[in-house]
């Protein structure tokens, strides 16, 4: 069943790539507008039609109540959607969202015989929205897939999504008409796209750091690559720094300029703000490749147009505070990863993914911060995940019988492991030693807070699932003197009873 396909699924965009067994590099499929990525939004016309992609995005500013955007963040189990998360998510959604029903509420005006429009509504879950978006990608796939049966696809998903979301994503693609052979997380797919480590013949490990900055969130991960085997050592995020934050800086500039010139405040009109955000997002993408562009908004407010020449240098000065914040977050997490894993002496390679990492100023900041690392950016950052997913299909022996299940060869932690100092019941300061899905063996270094009530004790508690085990560790002279902490190094391997075997020592 060839060709096979890889799809990158995101809040802002979708991208699909195809590959044949003789290809060494997959090809990204352009949509009917000629774009290599499609907008992950849809618009309901108030009747029976639902448009997806660019046309929906273009009409969204004038018909926000009929549009759904940034829906992928809500493809989660109800237990994973907290009030705090929902409050933030609503800010990126143009239409209304019913938190109790977990459905988008689309509203449109429908003409009647008495010349008065009536309001009609349509409710859609995040799952139903994802099915519609996959159906639009299926149309692109069928241009190249002429055989009977469903096209085989490998999907991507962010590392921090729960198992329930993985299942929902697979079900949505299957319902749309794909055969889902595998799902891989985004950082793994990005490394696959470049084939890092596949040609290395020696026994030395190569450490790869992936940097994702998408439409809404950023995320970092550290991998060890050895003999073509990718092992995820650590991941960080998501952090609320993404393309939307960069766009908002440009939105602020446009609002201030318009108010200064015409004494009109666009903040008073939701429609005007929607127009500004659409124009600002387009301008941002253009300036990633061109030195300047004309920023024009027709009838922005009260019939007044807005027109200004925007240079890349001017844009970069506006977004500098966001870049500084991003680089600070990045640096803190790189330092944390190197501290937690002493055997990782340096980052050998960096892989960029997410459309926002295509901003030249951001790429320059990353290269300057880590001059000894090879920065992989030759594949477009908003296409690299789809390319990696498509490459993964080349390694499927029998895609028709491929089912989504954990690899028996991969030794992973089944349940969370926590550690604390003191008695079994005094676990208020417990810290995570391992997360479910962590690959073993693994070495972790943690700074453990000492209980004042148990300062003379050398007893630590380890909890795996519902089991708590008492461990005595000789407290050597602490490297964190006078602060009430002790530094422990844990060497963790897989035990025969499926529980991890943990060896602790004070360093």
UniProtKB/TrEMBL annotation:
Short name of any one Pfam family annotated for the protein: HSP70
GO cellular component, one term: cytosol
Top-level taxon of origin: Eukaryota
Transmembrane residue ranges: none
Family annotation (InterPro entries): ATPase_NBD (IPR043129), Hsp_70_fam (IPR013126)
GO molecular function term, any single one: ATP-dependent protein folding chaperone
Keywords for the protein's UniProt record, in alphabetical order: ATP-binding, Nucleotide-binding
Residues in the signal sequence: none
Family: Belongs to the heat shock protein 70 family.
Name of this protein: Heat shock 70 kDa protein 14
Taxonomy of the source species: Eukaryota, Metazoa, Ecdysozoa, Arthropoda, Hexapoda
């Amino acid at each position: 069943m060839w060709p096979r396909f890889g799809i990158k699924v995101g809040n802002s965009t979708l991208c699909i790539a195809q590959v044949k067994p003789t290809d060494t590099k997959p090809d990204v499929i352009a949509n009917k507008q000629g774009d290599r990525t499609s907008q992950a939004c849809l618009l309901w016309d108030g009747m029976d039609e639902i448009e997806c992609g660019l046309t929906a995005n273009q009409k969204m500013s004038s018909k926000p109540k009929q549009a759904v955007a940034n829906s992928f963040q809500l493809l989660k189990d109800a237990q994973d959607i907290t009030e705090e998360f929902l409050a933030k998510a609503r800010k990126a959604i143009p239409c209304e969202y019913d938190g109790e029903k977990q459905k988008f509420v689309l509203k449109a005006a429908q003409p009647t015989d008495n010349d008065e429009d009536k309001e009609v509504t349509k409710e859609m879950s995040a799952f139903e929205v994802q099915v519609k978006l996959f159906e639009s990608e299926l149309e692109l796939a069928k241009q190249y897939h002429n055989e009977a049966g469903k096209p085989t696809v490998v999907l991507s998903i962010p590392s921090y999504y729960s198992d329930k979301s993985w299942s929902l994503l697979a079900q949505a693609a299957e319902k749309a008409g794909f055969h889902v052979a595998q799902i891989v997380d985004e950082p793994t797919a990005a490394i696959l796209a470049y084939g890092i480590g596949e040609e290395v013949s020696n026994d030395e490990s190569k450490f790869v750091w992936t940097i994702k900055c998408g439409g809404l969130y950023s995320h970092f991960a550290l991998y060890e690559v050895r003999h073509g085997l990718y092992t995820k050592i650590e991941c960080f995020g998501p952090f609320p720094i993404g393309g939307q934050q960069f766009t908002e800086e440009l939105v602020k500039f446009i609002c201030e300029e318009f108010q200064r010139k015409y004494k009109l405040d666009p903040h008073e009109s939701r429609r005007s703000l929607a127009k500004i955000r659409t124009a600002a997002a387009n301008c941002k993408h253009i300036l990633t490749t061109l030195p300047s562009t004309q920023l024009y908004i027709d009838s922005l407010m009260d019939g007044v147009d807005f027109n200004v020449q925007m240079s890349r240098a001017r844009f970069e000065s506006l977004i500098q505070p966001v870049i500084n914040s991003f680089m600070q977050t990045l640096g803190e997490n790189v330092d944390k990863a190197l501290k937690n894993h002493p055997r990782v002496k340096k980052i050998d390679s960096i892989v960029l993914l997410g459309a926002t990492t295509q901003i030249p100023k951001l790429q320059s900041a990353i290269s300057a911060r880590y001059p000894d690392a090879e920065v992989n950016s030759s594949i477009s950052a908003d296409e690299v995940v789809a390319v990696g997913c498509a490459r993964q299909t080349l390694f499927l022996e029998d895609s028709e019988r491929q089912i989504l299940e954990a690899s028996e060869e991969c030794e992973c932690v089944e349940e969370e492991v926590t550690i604390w100092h003191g008695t079994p019941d005094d676990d208020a300061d417990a810290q995570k030693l391992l997360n479910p899905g962590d690959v073993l063996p693994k070495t972790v270094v943690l700074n453990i807070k000492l209980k004042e009530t148990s300062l003379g004790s050398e007893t630590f508690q380890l909890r795996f699932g519902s089991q708590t085990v008492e461990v005595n560790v000789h407290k050597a002279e602490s490297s964190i003197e006078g602060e009430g902490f002790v530094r422990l190094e844990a060497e963790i391997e897989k035990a025969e009873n499926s529980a991890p075997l943990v060896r602790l020592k004070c360093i």
